[in-house]
Amino acid sequence: MLESLQDEVELVARTVEILQRIRAEEPVGLRHASTVTGLPEHRVRTSFQMLENEGLIQPTGDGAVTTDRTEPFLDKFDAEVESVRASVEELDALMAE
């Protein structure tokens, strides 16, 4: 059960890293993102698909670019992570009882 949670956290971390790279260098192609992050293309492709499905990037002929939804997402990302962290700490406290 916790292994799948760890996998999900790693996927989110990788995807946010790619989103930040796209924001900094747009447009960014899949191969370039793979090269600069050191991640295999199939993992980058999965992250691109997730970001596109969330409306955070859109494909162009020159590579992926961010959308008007990207900045609001990144602005609230830290708060969302903190909320998840608090939930994990509550779970940890329950297990200590």
Notes on the structure:
This protein has helices at residues 2-25, 30-37, 41-53, 70-96; strands spanning 57-60, 63-66. With 97 residues, the chain is mostly helical. It has a single domain (2-96), classed as Orthogonal Bundle (Arc Repressor Mutant, subunit A), CATH 1.10.10. A two-stranded antiparallel sheet has the order 1-2. 15% of the residues are buried. The model has no long low-confidence stretch (mean pLDDT 94).
Brief summary:
This protein is mainly alpha-helical. It is built from four helices and two strands.
> How many runs of DSSP E, i.e. beta strands?
2
CATH class: Mainly Alpha
- Helicity range of the residues? over 70%
Whole-number mean pLDDT = 94
Helix- and strand-based class?
A: mainly alpha
Rg? 16 Å
- CATH evolutionary superfamily: Winged helix-like DNA-binding domain superfamily/Winged helix DNA-binding domain
User: Tally the helices: what do you get?
Assistant: 4
The fraction of residues assigned to DSSP E strands is 5-15%
What is the CATH topology descriptor? Arc Repressor Mutant, subunit A
Strand arrangement in the largest pleated sheet = 1-2
Shape: elongated
Oligomer: single chain
CATH second-level architecture: Orthogonal Bundle
Quick one: biggest sheet? 2 strands, antiparallel
Q: In angstroms, what separates the terminal alpha carbons?
A: 21 Å
List the helices and strands and how they pair.
Layout: H1 2-25, H2 30-37, H3 41-53, E1 57-60, E2 63-66, H4 70-96
Antiparallel strand pairs: 1-2
